[in-house]
Amino acid sequence: MASKVKSDIKTPVLKGQEAEEKILEYLKQMNRPYGAVDVAANLKGAVPKTATQKILVALAEKGDLVQKIYGKTTFFVYDQSKINSLPKEKIDELKAEVNGVEEENKLLMAEVKSLTTDLTKIKSTPTDEEIEAQISSVKASIEQISKSLQPLRSGAPPISAEERNQIYADWARWRADWVRRRKIFATFWEIVSDPIPPQDANDLEENLGIERDTPEHLALEQSTFCQPLNPLKRKRS
User: For 3-15, what is each residue's pLDDT tens digit?
Assistant: First the structure.
C-alpha cells in the first residue's frame, strides 16, 4: 500500500516585534474585545497562547490596548481614542447625504409601486389573440341563437305548455327505465363475471357485444339536464 503523504502546511510562528504587530493589527482591524485564547485561536497559531497573553498585557501597559477584567476573564480591545474619527462637519455632510438618499429611495419605491400596479393591470388585460378568440366565441353563440330563433321569426308556432310538460314526463319515464335497466344489467353481469377471471369476463363482454356507457352518457348523467326538476318552476314556465 502506498504511504499517505501529508500536505498540511503549518502557519509560521511569529516572535518578538512581528508577533506584537500582528496582534495589534488584528485587534485594530476587528475593533471588538477579545481574550488571549480567542486571539491565539483566530490567528491560527501564528502566535502561541502563552506569548499572546504576555503581548496583550504589554500592549495594554503601553496604552495601545485597553484591558478589561470581568470576574476571572480578561478582555483586550483596541484603544478607541486612537481610531481616526470624522469631524462634525463631515458627519453632518454624510447625514445629509443619507437623508437625501432615503428621500430618493422613497420616491423610487413609490414609482415601483405605481409601475407594479400598472403591470398587474396590463397582465390582467386580454391579449389581441384572446380578444379575437372571445369575439369568435360570441359570434358563434349569436349565430347559434339566431338559428334557434329562426323558426319563431318565420311564424312557426311555439311549443305549448302541455307539449312541454309531456316532453318532461316522457324524459323522466325513459330515464327511469334506463336507470332501472342499468341496475338489472349490473347485478346480472356481476353474477356472471364474478366466478371467471377478469380477462375471460372482458372477452365474454366483447363476444356478446355489450356496450358500456360512453363518456357522453356519463357527462349527460352528471349535467343539470338530469337533475330533478322543481314542479313549481315547471308550472311557472
Answer: 444 445 666 787 8
